[in-house]
Sequence to fold (296 residues):
Amino acid sequence: MMNKFSLKFLAIILAFVAFTACDNDDDDVMVKDKLSLNITGLEDLGDDYAYEGWLIVNGKAISAGIFNVDGSGKLSKTSFEIDSDDLNNATAYVLTIEPSPDSDPGPSSVHILAGDFSGAKASLSVGHASAIGSDFSSSTGSYILATPTDGAGNNENSGVWWLDPSAGPGAGLSLPTLPSGWKYEGWAVIDGVPVTTGKFTSVTGADDSAPFSGSQAGPPFPGEDFLMSAPSGLTFPTDLAGKTVVISVEPEPDNSAAPFLLKPLVGMVPADAVDHTLYNMNNNANATNPTGKVTR
Fold:
């Protein structure tokens, strides 16, 4: 039988053990803080892709939340609970486009926005070195109407080629080199329907497809003749005078058959356009580049 002293001593020991256990449990509890997003200019990626944020902590990418964007550009979620140590130690924020669902725990190569933290905030841009690396503000473009795959003098206003005839011919585009995860794509908007001219990474080489061209070889530059296999609702050959031509920047893999939100160059083809005449495009980057801030 225990005496009163023994019972009192045992109670003290048990209380100490309980306190120590509680104190250890507190040490294991992860403290979280909020990361807030304020981003404009993103677009709906559909059901198969989503946006994912990443914090760069000691050179390692740590997921900072997944969200979608609706047709009006509204983010499905703008506030995320993040481990406070990771949040406080993060030097940068990177936004990527990811498959949905995604079996890879790391970031994809499709980095669209990034920014370095300065205090509690990071300003995001496509031009950051951890995003696309350029804001396309210095990009230029010029093009001619011609149909080289149909022979000389045939349906000449039914094709567009980004080349300069006076340069030998030479390149009609001046564009920055894209990082992995991105490609350029040309478009002609015909009666309101954007029709691809093909994807490319080099302005002095043929693009990767020629779905509407004729049987003859085209020049080694991006472009397309609209001569056959017209999309539903359109008729080829056509006349591109009065239409619009566009250079977009597309994620790879691509999330849509339509042009992506990044459209750095746009050209309104003159209503009286003449074939083999060089026409300039307008720089449209500031109007289509997404921007934003993150706050921790």
Remarks:
- Residues 1-27 have pLDDT under 50 and may be disordered.
- The helical segments are 4-28, 84-89, 285-288.
- The chain has two domains: 32-133, 140-288.
- Residues 4-28 form the longest helix (25 residues).
